[in-house]
Design goal:
The protein is α+β, with helices and mostly antiparallel strands and 130 residues long. It has one domain. 38% of the residues lie in helices and 25% in strands. The protein has 4 helices and 6 strands. The chain has a two-stranded parallel sheet with strand order 1-2. The protein has a two-stranded antiparallel sheet with strand order 3-4. α2 crosses α3. The chain is extended and about 55 Å long.
């Protein structure tokens, strides 16, 4: 799902299905089509880079974005809260919590089946397929 920006339309051709919303005609949600998840993930990425990594060069960017994606996918909705804006307008906010680390390991181990993990000379991790 995306809006109708030209870059997103071109990227959308690479996927089996691609739904869009048209912001210029004040369309932000149509049934289940929206861009809130994409915008939330992008905001999380920007905050993580600014607050944790500070700067990412183009060469080592993939592992950083894989980590951001892993953290994004390891969260669960724990409830909702009603928030009021300054002008008294109410909105519902979803509350998120981390998946417990013991449950995160299940996903890591599933992905590690048939691979070897070794410590590299510079202190990193090398993953080799069997």
């Amino acid at each position: 799902m995306s809006d109708e920006a030209k870059a997103f339309m071109a990227i959308g051709e690479s996927f089996a299905a691609h739904e869009t919303v048209n912001h210029t005609s004040c369309e932000y949600v149509r049934d289940t089509v929206h861009v809130n998840s994409v915008e939330g993930f992008n905001a999380r990425g920007r905050r993580t880079i600014a607050g944790v990594f500070h700067r990412i060069g183009p060469e080592p960017a993939d592992p950083y974005f894989h980590e951001i994606g892993f953290r994004w996918s390891q969260r669960i909705a724990t409830g909702q809260a009603v928030r009021k804006s300054r002008n008294g307008r109410e909105s519902i906010k979803t509350l998120w919590s981390r998946v417990p680390p013991s449950l995160q390991l299940l996903q890591v181990f599933r992905a590690a089946t048939g691979r070897q993990m070794r410590r590299s000379p510079d202190g990193g991790i090398i993953i080799k397929s069997a």
